[in-house]
Amino acid sequence: MNSWNSNISPNCRCCSVPERETSEHLFQNGEVARVVWQYFNGAAGINHLTYLKQSIRKWWDTGGNARVKVVFQVVPMIILWVLWKRRNTILHGGIYSTKKSIRDANDIIRKLIVCRFKIKWDIYQWSDMVVALEGYIPSYSFRIVRWSPPSDNWFECNTDGASRGNPGPSSAAFCIRDSLGHLVVAKGIKIQDTTTLVAGARAIRECMEYCKVHRVFKVIIESDSIAMVQILEGTWKAPWSVVLEVDYIKKLRRTVSARVQHSLLEGNTLADFFLT
């Protein structure tokens, strides 16, 4: 990225009569900046302010529902990025109109909303986005989570790992229950400072080592770490930090018939209880 330097670029490229380029002029009070800000300010009900810091604070302090606040806090950053991108494009001989600046900012904001809130939108103009965001009514749903015992001749192992600081002081725990729901074994250990992901992998490893030693050859392993489940099932590539643990678990699975599945936190509370 090019850095702003008023000594190298004394005159702005945003006004019909160029003025000295300062950060306040480029991002807040120049001709292009004012048009872009007014476009977004108008629909949001925000007055144009003289100083950039005040303008950003105004966007951050604007009230509204949860979605409105999330989007309004990001909009100033998007506007600044587009204005900076426009400035450098023109500086190096390109063309970047004011309309394109507004269009690009609109597009980024729309993509942010779609990605952040996991929704499908056929809305492309900022004013329409504001109306839709302000009309948002949150919906709530719930589900009952229960631990279910495994079928006959199988055991179920719940595992959990935790790290305070991520990385930081860590621990791992597991508990095994039979098909009647009876607790067979429970274990919690402190491990070296590491991340939550590594601690989760260590918990699964400890469980499988116990199963191998005590000849428990059919076990369902449940973890509330969806990342570890996806890694062990081969859907996700293992990060370098857990490669050794994952490789060791794979070797243990050659001896122990283990099915790995995800459990919600509420269904994994017993293993969580044994974390040290």
UniProtKB/TrEMBL annotation:
Listed InterPro entries: RNase_H-like (IPR053151), RNase_H-like_dom_plant (IPR044730), RNaseH-like_sf (IPR012337), RNaseH_domain (IPR002156), RNaseH_sf (IPR036397)
Source organism, top-level taxon: Eukaryota
One MF annotation (Gene Ontology) recorded for this entry: nucleic acid binding
Domain RNase H type-1: 151-276
Name recorded for this polypeptide: RNase H type-1 domain-containing protein
UniProt organism field: Solanum pinnatisectum
